[in-house]
Amino acid sequence: xxxxxLRVALIGMGTVGTGVARILTDQAERIARRAGxxxxxxxxxxxxxxxxxxxxxxxxxxxxxxxAVCADKEIDVALLLVGGLxxxxxxxxxxxxxxxxxxxxxxxxxxxxxxxxxxxxxELGRTVAYEAAVAGGIPIIAAIGQSMAANQITSIQAIIxxxxxxxxxxxxEKARPYTDVLAEAQKLGYAEADPTLDVDGTDAAxxxxxxxxxxxxxxxxxxxxxxTGIDKLELADLRNAxxxxxxVKLLATARLVKGQLEMHVQPTLVKQDEPLAKTSxxxxxxxxxxxxxxxxxxxx
Length: 300
Fold this sequence. Notes:
alpha/beta; Rossmann fold; Dihydrodipicolinate Reductase, domain 2; 2 domains; 11 helices
């Protein structure tokens, strides 16, 4: 007896959407074996149907009609792969109200409108999954929300912006000026054409909001804590840190101090023998401290 496939819709086919579509099509057999059922792409909603895509999809899947996706009762899960706040917020609510479970990588949306989104999902008996919104492929949401459920997390220290970490690594190891490394990061696809959210600490701060809400049960807006990026750092700053046995890392920190939650994102001196200091290139690392297990590191 064959198992019915899980039918999904992709909303958005930018860099992330294309990557997801490629994995679902190229690794269909492996995913079906591990998931216990096939995962079938039923529809792909985009703004421009005529645009050439970097992944081959069966004909008839791509549409610019979101209404058709919402009305399709055969779709079980929608993968919301649109960035920004609007129309992402409106699309998210429409998908939930049409009976779809939703998976998203949109950290900005959840940081700004998460309370509304999760409240509506609860009202409708739907699920919003967002593992991909923080720290790339590191399963940090599951680690905090499930694996460490018996712990009170007391501290989060994290490198959660790969662009900034790549820039700092190149500056430190090759003595390259900030502007040159930023240009290379853009060429390699690590940084956007407008890299502001990466280099001024906003991206890391949005991710920290999600992690701290999950770990500490408190929603703290990005505007409520200090956020300093790497765009004002000079090679002399990194050289001076090295002379004293430190590396400079853009750390997102949330920790309990005498029962109060302290949060900030800023360039931080980290001792060279610490795992966070040794995290190089575009890699991320999250250090969690639990009252039962002590310190744990998740990297990738």
